[in-house]
Amino acid sequence: QSECFRALCCKGPPPARPEYDLVCIGLTGSGKTSLLSKLCSESPDSVVSTTGFSIKAVPFQNAILNVKELGGADNIRKYWSRYYQGSQGVIFVLDSASSEDDLETARNELHSALQHPQLCTLPFLILANHQDKPAARSVQEVKKYFELEPLARGKRWILQPCSLDDMEALKDSFSQLINLLEDHEAVRM
């Protein structure tokens, strides 16, 4: 009986949640900062566009994601690759309601990230944001336009629709990413 009691009362602290270092990229206005702030339960009113980079620790039940968010302006994007080192996964946010020109730019940026030597083997979460806007393209349209199938064959990537008003779906997308990260790190060990 005492054994049993000791097992119940002396469990010790819960195991530490694994932490993963991620890089978050996407054009200015795609909604990177707003999505991450909402995941951290910060007020969306205080969101300003990221000019350099910012780091947020985003807590989930089974992991903590240290997300390095890089500003998406033209003059900053050329420096993105300097911040890739040490990343264990990539979040790419695109505005699914943006102009053709911006979508084309986003596609080129995603393609170079998927092929970058420091990122090409990592899990990618691609978020088609602003699904709540009338002009938003569906996930199928985005997948086709971004030519993801041939480019990302053999890579671990998830393409998910998202918007700020559907937090459940967003959290679910991140849960899928965490599963990919766990698998990826297990393979690396």
From TrEMBL:
Keyword tags = GTP-binding, Magnesium, Metal-binding, Nucleotide-binding
Q: Which InterPro entries match?
A: ARL15 (IPR042292), P-loop_NTPase (IPR027417), Small_GTPase_ARF/SAR (IPR006689)
Q: Name one GO molecular function term.
A: GTP binding
The highest taxon in the source lineage is Eukaryota
| Binding positions (GTP) | 26-33, 72, 129-132
Name of the protein in its database record: ADP-ribosylation factor-like protein 15
Q: Report the sequence similarity comment from the record.
A: Belongs to the small GTPase superfamily. Arf family.
Stored PANTHER family? ADP-RIBOSYLATION FACTOR-LIKE PROTEIN 15 (PTHR46693)
> Where, in this chain's numbering, is Mg(2+) bound?
33, 50
Q: Which PROSITE patterns match?
A: ARF
Q: Which organism is it from?
A: Bos taurus
